[in-house]
Amino acid sequence: MGIKIERTGRKTPVYDITVEGTHNFYANNVLVHNCTEINLPTTPLSHIDDGDDTDAEIALCVLAAINLGTIKNLDELEVVCEYIVRGLDSVISYQEYPMAAARKMLKRRSIGVGVTNFAYWMVKNGLSYDNPESLEKIDELFENIQYYLIKASVELAKEEGPCEWFDRTKYSKGLLPIDHYNKNVDKIVHRELSKDWEKLRRDVLEFGMRNSTLTAQMPCESSSVVSSSTNGIEAPRTLITTKKSKSGAPLPVVVPEVSKYKNKYQFAWSFDNNAMNNIVSVIQKYFDQGISVNHYYDPRQYEGNNLPISVVAKDILNFYKFGGKQIYYANSKDYKSDKLEDMVSTDNQQPAMADLGDDCESGACAI
After folding, report:
1. For the chain, which domains are there?
2. Which of 19, 22, 49, 303 is such that its CA lies 20 to 30 A from the CA of 289?
3. What pLDDT does residue 347 have?
4. How far is residue 156's CA from residue 310's CA, in Å, rounded to a whole number?
């Protein structure tokens, strides 16, 4: 079906929803933006001559996710965060860098720690995605995670020294994520901070940090299967999801403790996207890199089974209003069968199931 675009001659208000201090760029002649708290200078790969004096830089992903399903209390996070920071920092030292643009990772030593099994953690703690009271507990959880990650990086800096380009970060100026988050978040969460952030700030200024960045939320699609967890911070789509394994065979994936919590899990299609926007905004309050969020739409909830563009636009604007960074996917429910027998092909046709492949197109955000 072709699409025809005509000039109307009308003047219509448009909105620049970028975040101050970040940059815009054109992709396929569409103006878009990409936001992180610490922007990496980049140059097209065709311009990289691999010389040590080049300004080009390739940003690399060194990722780990905390399995929240195994966390019994917040005090456990301190040692978990320490092990993760030390482990990922060792990976940076051990891996090979075939290009000078990539070796600049040794100067930044950027890592990205996120969480997985968030939906399971929610049901275990009697929380729900669309209950505003849940935001207080979520806020407390991620305050502890970011606090202990920074503390671990400071301790490592005491032993090994701060990363070479630490002076290029906001941390080096004593600025922590809690200092520059979108203050609209305070309208939905009123909890007072519980950690000694001022003491941590003084330590950061005195000793520096081993890593330029610490937190990033990855999809955790394929790794969630291995760890028997729900994907990242996403709500499951059903209690049992059938995915396609690397071999092409159907692979049923069941949410944790399905018998006990089958009536407690919320599905991605069952609550308003603004609830997810609020959760991501609270998490972003503490993260030092941008979080992508997925939106979910059930066409049958709308007249004529047609999703109004106004609904999508409202979800997007609300997301950015509270400090959101990137929209990942807008998923619509197709009502295809998720039963295993319906997905096995009997006539040489490809089975219809989720592809358990890389978590993003490049594979860079897969763990």
Report:
1. 23-355 (3.20.70.20)
2. 49
3. 37
4. 49
